[in-house]
Write a structure and sequence with these properties.
Blueprint lengths: L1 E6 L9 E5 L13 E4 L8 E9 L10 E4 L7 H14 L3 H8 L20 E7 L4 H5 L6 H12 L3 E2 L3 H5 L3 H9 L3 E7 L20 H15 L5 E6 L5 H14 L3 E5 L7 H11 L4 E4 L5 H12 L5 E4 L11 E6 L17 H12 L3 E5 L4 H8 L4 E5 L10 E6 H6 L8 H12 L3 E5 L8 E4 L16 E3 L4 E3 L6 E3 L12 E4 L3 H11 L5 E4 L9 H11 L4 E4 L12 E6 L3 H4 L6 H13 L10 E6 L5 H8 L2 H15 L6 E9 L2 H22 L4 E2 L3 E8 L2 E10 L3 H16 L6 E6 L6
Parallel strand pairs: 9-14, 9-15, 10-12, 10-13, 11-12, 13-14, 16-26, 17-24, 17-25, 23-24, 25-26
Antiparallel strand pairs: 1-2, 1-4, 3-4, 3-5, 6-7, 6-8, 18-22, 19-20, 20-21, 27-30, 27-31, 28-30, 29-30
The structure holds adenosine-5'-diphosphate and zinc ion (2 copies).
One zinc ion (ZN) binds next to loops.
Length: 749
């Protein structure tokens, strides 16, 4: 028997199969999906590979034997198929996709090494703290074992010290040497191999559904019964009881002995969320997968699924690759969240994969959101997705009252602080009543922009209608789409005011200001700077809730799905920060974030109040979020997108080039551009192709960055053109330029 093997490598021209002979004694053990070791070329050491097909004969002669095979099956045939499908669609190597599906910790070239099953409390973890490439080159680092370990640590976070000998065959003594030489750090952490070990949760029974919930439930239930691969959009305001619907659907699937995949955004994978599932279904049925677990923990969860013990998988984006058998439903909560799109190779969108699996196994997909992704809602209007609405909050809590404050007015009244008079008074009153407040400021480091403080004017690109980004270094305004640039202005073209400011204030500054204004109030801050270790995100929220801290100040992180009964005031410090990120999705993001953040206020008896501060009170995404009217927002925004050919009416494909040589990058980008231009002319493919331009951030770590933007309907014809282009321009020769292809990227920097 002959096996077709893919070598585990991201080198472009290794993205093909090589035939190997299956030795007689391995015939029983090797299946499609097996992980094997093979001799490759003249390289002495064995290479890792994956069997993607088995056949009787080969057109090649003198085949080498497979050298070793993993005893356990790693992935099954359908997943190999999925990896092939992904590689074609996301323009990467098949092995890049297979790797996502392997059990966590599979990073060494030895086979059959397993993390021991253990439950631990305080453990020692190891991580790298030094870049090693240079030291290897300069022969400062020579020991093969040391290098092997450092490479393994570079690829895996939170590795247990005691797992290292098992995972890498490197002794603990060597780890200690590396610690002494300053390459690794050994640190302690409270950790549990069973992430739920500490949990004693009360069992909950299913609630009696409201009429709207009942209708939604019934529709999906019949799709499950009829093995229909239907898609549903559960469009329900914040607190409308979407989760209860998910719980009952999962129960239904479980009763039939089938499995569920429940995806939630990475950031809302808090114990609070997981508890709701555990208290309904018990720990044994549930596996949780996310990046904050240690490798060993993830490994345990993976096998809990693979062995069929856990039939409910809750996880972030990558949980779609869980080795689930007998799938019954896929649910994607907060489906508008941009963490569902991967920004690393393979640059997949999890919804594509859900659709792929849904079709393959004839199971329904449920997308849930209070502010659906424009593309999902568009598909619902086109009846590709069935729309199910929950219009009322399930526990009869009223939606909060929303007020908008014009910061231009505030400024002309002489208030130069970050807090408007109205918000100041509301905070003061809240403090007096012993109620809690959340202040939200979404500052993205690089999104500085210029605005006229008198009329609210911001510079937009004449070609793209997108806010120009201010580049401090060159004092220029640039469009991130087409590359158009102009000098930064000092006078407003609309009102001639000289009161032009560029913006970039952060949460830290805000906290200082609040502490000065309200010296007696307790505050706590949550942003990437304060959230770094595994639990601290949750710790901050717990502290805020349990210790009744007066004011929580935070970025995006405070927005997602938390439930704080005592929060009655939410202040949005600058609604404009998202409007000016230089992205066609700016309005959509603003609307989503304002609606979500408003949903944090007054979730129980006391009605909540939301104050939105902005320089653009007339901007429609702010106006419609004040009205909490998604449909009005959708209608207006979609007419703009349609006219300017943005998703969902058109897809954006970004070809990103990087190289250390500016000359080569320009040459290759031009070559790709010419290739595509000729191809679309001869094949008559309807696309808009822009010229190669330097990326907005045009150099990172001494590598130049260029890009080509394509607007078109993403489908098989353009996929084929781009794959051929990669083969012709990249796979066959080494031109020291690499290219990534990203379809509808989250950001355009
Ligand atoms: P969403 O997921 O839409 O934000 P949740 O599922 O968190 O909403 O529900 C909000 C609150 O309403 C929760 O406290 C939940 O227990 C409660 N709830 C949901 N459905 C019902 C129901 N049918 N009857 C009573 N309370 C409900
Ligand atoms: Zn102006
Ligand atoms: Zn432009």
């Amino acid at each position: 028997m002959i096996a077709e093997v893919i070598i585990n490598s991201n080198v472009k021209n290794l993205n093909k199969t090589f035939d190997y002979n299956i030795p007689f004694d391995m015939e029983e053990k090797i299946t499609i999906g097996s992980r094997v070791l093979v001799k490759f070329g003249n390289i002495k050491k064995l290479e890792e590979g994956f069997v993607v097909n088995i056949k009787d004969s080969s057109e090649w002669e003198n085949l080498k034997d497979i050298s070793a095979v993993e005893e356990k099956d790693f992935i099954d045939e359908p997943r190999v198929e999925m990896a092939k499908w992904m590689a074609n669609r996301y323009f990467c190597n098949i092995s890049d996709c297979i790797k996502l599906m392997l059990p966590p910790g599979t990073g060494t070239k030895e086979l059959s090494k397993r993390v021991k099953e253990k439950s631990l409390n305080s453990v020692k973890l190891v991580k790298t703290i030094e870049e090693i490439e240079e030291d290897i080159e300069n022969k400062i680092l020579k020991s093969e074992k040391q290098i092997k370990l450092l490479k393994f640590l570079a690829n895996n976070d939170d590795v247990l010290l005691t797992d290292i000998p098992v995972l890498t065959e490197v002794s603990i003594a060597i780890v200690k040497t590396l610690q002494k030489n300053g390459y690794v750090e050994i640190y302690e952490k409270q950790i549990e191999r069973n992430p739920f070990l500490h949990k004693v949760v009360e069992k909950t029974e299913k609630l009696k559904l409201t009429d709207e919930q009942q209708h939604a439930y019934k529709m999906v239930e019949s799709a499950i019964d009829d093995y229909m691969n239907s898609e549903f959009l559960l469009f329900g305001v914040t607190g409308s009881g979407k989760t209860e619907v998910y719980l009952q659907l999962i129960q239904k699937v479980l009763n039939e002995g089938k499995s569920s995949i429940m995806l939630v955004p990475e950031i809302s994978l808090t114990p609070q969320t997981v508890d709701r599932f555990i208290s309904r279904f018990g720990q044994d049925n549930i596996a949780v997968l996310h990046s904050k677990l240690s490798v060993g923990e993830r490994y345990d969860q993976w096998y809990k699924i693979k062995s069929g013990k856990a039939k409910i998988v809750i996880g972030a984006r990558s949980a779609i690759f869980a080795p689930v058998e007998n799938l019954g439903i896929i649910i994607i909560d907060e489906e508008h969240d941009n963490s569902y799109k991967s920004e690393m190779t393979p640059r997949y969108n999890v919804k594509d994969l859900a659709r792929y699996l849904g079709k393959k196994y004839d199971v329904p997909i449920v997308y849930g959101s209070a502010t659906p992704d424009m593309s999902t809602y568009y598909r619902a209007l086109n009846e590709e997705v069935e729309l199910l609405e929950l219009t009322k909050r399930a526990n009869d809590a009223e939606l909060p009252k929303i007020e908008v404050v014009d910061l231009k007015q505030e400024l002309s009244n002489g208030n130069r602080s970050m807090i408007s008079m109205k918000l100041y008074q509301a905070i003061e009153e809240n403090l007096k009543n012993k109620k809690q407040t959340i202040l939200f400021l979404n500052r993205r480091g690089y999104s500085t922009f210029i605005m006229c403080r008198d009329c609210g004017y911001t510079a937009k690109c004449k070609n793209c209608n997108i806010t120009m980004t201010y580049h401090i270094k060159q004092n220029k305004l640039k469009c991130h789409y087409c590359g158009y640039e102009c000098n930064a202005i000092s006078t407003c073209p609309d009102c001639n005011s000289k009161n032009i400011r560029y913006f970039g204030t952060g949460t830290q500054k805000l906290e200082a200001e609040i502490n000065k204004m309200f010296p007696k109030a307790s505050t706590i801050r949550m942003d990437v700077d304060t959230v770094s270790t595994k639990n601290s995100h949750e710790d901050i929220l717990k502290k805020f809730k349990n210790e009744n801290i007066d004011i929580l100040i935070g970025t995006q992180m405070v927005v997602k799905g938390h439930h704080f009964p005592n929060v009655t005031l939410v202040g949005v410090i600058a609604a404009d920060t998202n409007l000016n990120i230089g992205d066609y999705m700016a309005s959509e993001r603003t609307f989503q974030i304002l609606t979500q953040v408003a949903g944090r206020a007054g979730r129980e008896k006391d009605r909540g109040k939301v104050i939105i501060q902005t320089y653009n009170p007339d901007n429609f995404s702010i106006e419609f979020s004040k009205k909490q009217d998604y449909k009005l927002f959708y209608n207006l925004e979609s007419s703009i997108r349609k006219q300017l050919k943005y998703p969902p009416f058109c897809d954006i494909i970004m070809l990103g080039f990087t190289s250390e040589s500016e000359k080569n990058i320009q040459k290759v980008a031009t070559e790709v551009h010419t290739y595509l231009k000729n191809k679309i002319q001869t094949d008559n493919i309807p696309i808009i192709l822009y010229k190669p331009v330097p990326a907005p951030i045009d150099k990172i770590k001494n590598k130049y960055r260029w890009r080509i933007i394509i607007k078109c309907k993403f489908g098989n014809d353009i996929i084929e053109v781009i794959n051929n282009c990669i083969n012709d321009v990249f796979a066959k020769r080494n031109n020291q330029v690499s290219m990534i292809v990203d379809v509808n990227p989250n950001n355009m920097l």
